[in-house]
Amino acid sequence: MASVVQWIQGTRPRTLPNSIAPVIVGAAAAHHIDEFNVLYTVLALVVSVALQIGVNYANDYSDGIRGTDDNRVGPFRLTGSGAAEPAKVRLAAFISLGIGALAGIALVAMSGYWWMLAFGAVCIAGAWFYTGGKRPYGYAGLGEIAVFLFFGPAAVLGTLYVQSGEITGIGIGSSIAMGSISAAVLVANNLRDIPTDAVSGKRTLAVVLGDKDTRRLYLALVAVPFLIALGMTVRVPYALLGFLAAPVLLPAVRRVAAGRGGRDLIPVLQFTGIAMLAWAVLVSTGLFLD
Q: Residue 95: in which H helix or E strand, if any?
């Protein structure tokens, strides 16, 4: 029987900045046009984090029963390690996704944007079918695109729109920044797993591109938020604060650029996630100060 600590590990805490950072930026974009709502932001955060945990448990379950995690070099997995029964991991995924759905329904009911129920349904389906179902899109090299869309435009612009009823240039730029660095987290994860994924038949984008081009893709993606911050200074000079996140990212960039592999790439996910959260907080501070 898996321990409480192992179940917490199963949520993949190092990846949670992917769901927190976009909501922070989306809320700041709403504040920039005087439409910030604390309650709506909290509910959006619950939706985002619950779906993130749900997709992590779903990924643990699906990869585990397929045997993808049998010889992994990355962090602990509940199903692949045999610490938890697959059915219980699947139930944990459903519960997490259900919590996200309930928070989303409450948010839609209060905002009155009922069409966003369909938007939420797409997000939940995207979470499950990433590695679930007969033809998971995560096994077809589409994971990075999905992460970009769900943790970029969907999370940032969804948080902005539900509070303001509009989409702004600042919101669009921020969503591209968040989507890019979120995708970089997955790229780093899949870069580490190229050897085992190739053997197990998991055809990720990293497997398709190969080691060298995957590293180039990672470096390009993590540069995007800083280019966006520079562009945002035309409207919001304080957006330059985003560059203070660069030192946090530097250790990850060095490891990837130096050709490190295996377990040496595990910290890259953590550094990239922390840098993403730092960028979101810093740029959001700039938006609040502007």
A: helix 86-111
Confidence of residue 31 (pLDDT cuts 50, 70, 90): very high
Cα–Cα distance, 6 to 130 (Å, whole number): 23
| Token pair of 93 as six digits | 């995924």
- 98 is written with which tokens? 């259900």
How many other C-beta atoms can be found within 10 angstroms of the C-beta atom of residue 87? 11
- Residue 114 burial (CB < 10 Å; 0-12/13-18/19+)? exposed
pLDDT of residue 71: 62
Neighbouring C-beta atoms of residue 125, cutoff 10 Å: 13
What is this structure's pTM?
0.90
Q: 136-166 pLDDT, tens per residue? A: 888 888 889 999 999 999 999 999 999 999 9
Length of the chain, in residues: 290
CB 81 within 8 A of CB 68: no
Interior/surface letters 47-60, b for 16+ CB within 10 angstroms, e for the rest: bbbbbbbbbbbbbb
225-261 pLDDT, tens digit each: 999 999 999 999 999 999 999 999 999 999 999 999 8
Residue carrying structure tokens 């899109």: 137
Q: How far apart are CA 219 and CA 252, in angstroms?
A: 10
> Identity (one letter) of the amino acid at 281?
V
| Paired residues of 203 in beta bridges | 140
